User: What shape does this take?
Amino acid sequence: MIAALFAAAALMTGAASLFAARPWLKAGAYCALVVAMGVTWWASLGRPRPILPLLGIPAGTVAAFSLDEPRAIYVWLMPPGARVPVALALPWNERDAAALHRAMRASQRLGTRVKMHGGQRPAGASGTPMLRRDGPVFYPAPNPPLPPKQRP
Assistant: This one.
């Protein structure tokens, strides 16, 4: 999604720098393109990307997390179907940090993984149902169903 936004911005600024009639508009579009390239380079360094509520909160399995109490909650998330985790930086929130710890303890007790979802708790998740809220929801993954019984 973010790559598509950068591509659209690059195409628009490129078109403005080529086809603009006024020289100040061409220079402004060129400067915007240089700034967008710098931001793209900075974003490609592997730093955790911030969660933007406008773009939504991704869902997946929490591979690891780190709490930096006054600043952020860093989460390495495995989206469904991905081969590598995505590094995310959530804004620090005491409630989210406590929910992450509770989900981690519950998942260790159940022998499952911790899942992260944006907004509403999915159906079948253990724990108390939550109403819609802005921010991530951490919960232990449900146990997989047992295989069907074999007839003797």
Summary: Helices lie at 2-19, 23-43, 94-110.
